[in-house]
Amino acid sequence: PDDAEDEQELIKNADIAMYNAKDLGKNQISFFSNELNEKVEHYFELKNHLDLAIKHGEFRLYFQPKVDLLANKICAAEALIRWIKADGTLVAPDNFIPVAEDTKQIIPIGQWVIETAIQQLKDWQDTEFKDLSLSINVSAIQLYDESFLPHLKSNLASSGINPAQLEIEITETAVITDTETAVKILYELKKLDVMLSLDDFGTGYSSLSYLRLLPVDILKIDRSFIASAKEGNVSNKILASIIALAIDVVAEGVEDETHLNLLLAHQCQLGQGYYFSRPLPLAQFSELALDLSLH
Ligand code: C2E
Ligand code: MG
Ligand code: MG
């Protein structure tokens, strides 16, 4: 009786509580609350705004360098999506990707990312950046969608770029949802000659048997390991063992010189983080890349 003014509203609110209970998993109970109502309203508002953002092309790729730590040179970049609203506000991916995954809007958004990244590699062909490789992030929903492989394949084919310069970053959690299917898709992906990396490595289940099963080329060690590693502690030992695995490793979240020295001591070849640069719009990235490749 306290949750609505009339029958219609009561049923609508009961419905919201029911969907929340379903979201929580099996056999759950949920009560309607204003907080829940606001959450649902925010969700639908964001969903509608994302539709418009897709229609009006409000997304941009930012680029963050991956640095060869020993040579102090940029050798690759990660493309990270940003949503620039009409009023100029910049929205970070963590604030819209989860909803876009839930609503499947990640499919058209992800296709745009693929097309734009491939176009970027193509644009770099006749420049001093022709050897840079570029990575993109792919969500589980996207990876498992039947349009994913054909779309990627046809875009690669018509672009004429070297597919090995495109790297696909997938999180461990994306693989865990359905390992058997994931293994199949990843092998199909490798047939296209793209590079594959496991993102945020160490934060999921990090099972070594996945590494044996999956055709991954690169591990991206999650920044939490780099942040907490200190001489002799467990994080540091885990870090050392991941680097010692005979797979290429990129350390994420290199924020200062201490982190850099620690990684150099472990002979980690590649790093990425604010110490080198934040993700940048294309023009600024190009300037930085020119600078850093001169060393
Ligand atoms: P990620 O792929 O692990 O990307 C690294 C994130 O760490 C980026 O956040 C980057 O800005 C941030 N980062 C880089 N260096 C440092 C550092 O030194 N310190 C700290 N504290 N953070 C650092 P961003 O750009 O906000 O992206 C967040 C996540 O959103 C990404 O994590 C990725 O999972 C997802 N994402 C980004 N772009 C896309 C996309 O195009 N498609 C999909 N599906 N997901 C994306
Ligand atoms: Mg990534
Ligand atoms: Mg990561």
Helicity, in percent?
40-55%
Strand order of the largest sheet: 1-2-4-5-6-7-8-9
H/E topology pattern = HHEEEHHEHHEHHEHEHHEHEH
- Quaternary structure: single chain
Q: Which secondary-structure class do the elements indicate? A: alpha/beta
Hetero ligands:
ligand C2E, magnesium ion
Low-pLDDT segments: none
Shape: globular
Features of the shown structure:
alpha/beta, 9 strands, binds magnesium ion
Describe what this molecule looks like in 3D:
The chain is α/β, with parallel strands linked by helices and 295 residues long. Helices cover 48% and strands 18% of the residues. It has an eight-stranded mixed barrel, surrounded by four helices. The longest helix is centred in the first third of the chain and has 23 residues. The model has no long low-confidence stretch (mean pLDDT 93). The structure holds ligand C2E and magnesium ion (MG) (2 copies). The site of one magnesium ion has 4 residues, from loops.
What's the SSE blueprint?
Blueprint: H1 7-24, H2 34-56, E1 59-68, E2 73-84, E3 90-91, H3 97-102, H4 106-124, E4 133-137, H5 140-143, H6 148-159, E5 166-171, H7 172-176, H8 179-191, E6 195-201, H9 208-213, E7 218-221, H10 223-228, H11 234-244, E8 248-251, H12 257-265, E9 270-271, H13 282-292
Parallel strand pairs: 2-4, 4-5, 5-6, 6-7, 7-8, 8-9
Antiparallel strand pairs: 1-2, 1-9, 2-3
Helix pairs in contact: 4-6
